[in-house]
């Protein structure tokens, strides 16, 4: 646990350098094949590719219509079994929008069924912000029934996080507002910078 916390305290490198390192690690570790329908399949019976290749797809498809806003990184070596859920919605400061929530829900359900994961760490790649709460610009465009469904989806996501079978840690390196604070409170432990 102390090794994980020490690792979180290390100053972060530039975003592009982190992405390049993540891409190299992903390409080295996960050899994959594409099916005819475009879904990816892992070689050697490893865990789900949707979770493992998110950083690679983000790197290669930065102009994609639906960008990756929540990513997953599995640590290796003596930190094997630790999964980092990386929130990377830079422009909206990790605001909880429809795409963000659906990607987070997909990752959390994947992690809840993964027996190789021993600890899950939620952290932000946006400097100075853990999570800015609900995306109010997106919410302003919703009618009442859409807004009610969205709020219900947020509540179920926080319940999913709270019910994960593995210990969860919120590594808060910045502000956590509204729903962002709820996300941190849904975790078992919270660590924060000054």
Automatic annotation (TrEMBL):
InterPro entries: ClpP/crotonase-like_dom_sf, Enoyl-CoA_hyd/isom_CS, Enoyl-CoA_hydra/iso. Gene3D superfamilies: 2-enoyl-CoA Hydratase, Chain A, domain 1. It comes from the Eukaryota. It holds the Pfam family ECH_1. SUPFAM superfamilies: ClpP/crotonase. Belongs to the enoyl-CoA hydratase/isomerase family. This is Enoyl-CoA hydratase domain-containing protein 2, mitochondrial.
């Amino acid at each position: 646990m102390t090794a994980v916390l020490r690792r979180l305290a290390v100053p972060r490198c530039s975003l592009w350098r982190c992405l390049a390192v993540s891409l190299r690690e992903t390409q080295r570790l996960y050899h994959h094949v594409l099916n005819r329908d475009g879904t990816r399949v892992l070689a050697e019976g490893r865990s789900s590719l949707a979770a493992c290749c998110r950083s690679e797809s983000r790197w290669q498809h930065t102009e994609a219509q639906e960008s990756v806003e929540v990513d997953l990184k599995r640590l290796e070596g003596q930190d094997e079994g630790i999964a980092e859920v990386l929130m990377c919605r830079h422009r909206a400061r990790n605001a909880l929008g429809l795409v963000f929530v659906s990607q987070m829900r997909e990752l959390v359900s994947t992690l809840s069924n993964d027996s190789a994961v021993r600890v899950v760490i939620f952290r932000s790649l946006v400097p100075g912000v853990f999570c800015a709460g609900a995306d109010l610009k997106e919410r302003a465009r919703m009618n009442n029934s859409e807004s009610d469904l969205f709020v219900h989806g947020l509540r179920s996501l926080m319940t999913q996080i709270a019910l994960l079978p593995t210990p969860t840690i919120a590594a808060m390196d910045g502000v956590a507002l509204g729903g962002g604070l709820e996300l941190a409170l849904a975790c078992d432990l919270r660590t924060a910078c000054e």
